[in-house]
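Summary for the lay section of the report: proteins are chains of building blocks that fold into shapes. Here we show the chain for Nucleoside diphosphate kinase and then a coded description of the shape we predicted for it.
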Amino acid sequence: FLPHLVASLERVDQTYIMVKPDGVQRGLVGEIISRFEKKGFKLTGLKLFQCTKELAEEHYKDLKGKSFFPGLIEYITSGPVVCMAWEGVGVVASARKLIGVTNPLEAEPGTIRGDLAIQKGRNVIHGSDSPESGKREVALWFKEGELVEWEPALVPWLIE
Ligand code: UDP
Ligand code: MG
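The coded shape description reads as follows.
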């Protein structure tokens, strides 16, 4: 199975997932990590972190100018967040499905936002929206030594 595995590893993407301050305050960290773990993706970075205004503004720079931007920056910096980097084939799009749409009232039951949140401004989790954003955001939130390369023992049971 090795050549196939190596070929599939070449298509591996990374995504930046973050439990927002409301998720941390509400004790949802374990529940949220668990959903990605169970799906089978590989965790390569994990930390509890107090985000600065500068970092929040850089992360959300595409939304600068929106009416909700100041509130969003205040929200993201209002308490610790849990930063995660996850790797896998198709991980970016799959994580967005697990997360659900931005407005939790419209998010499907079974998704993280659909099950655990009510408002856009308190929607408990962030997930990168493309492989390019995934790369950019993982590099923005993690220093090089904070990411770990490892081979999960379960790989042959998850990838044929
Ligand atoms: N947001 C908000 N009001 C809006 C749109 C977005 O408060 O009308 C917040 C919300 O927390 C969202 C974040 O801004 O998760 C980033 O917006 P984006 O459109 O990128 O949504 P996401 O990719 O997180 O689903
Ligand atoms: Mg987004």
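Put simply, here is one thing we learned. The CA atoms of residues 44 and 149 lie 6 Å apart.
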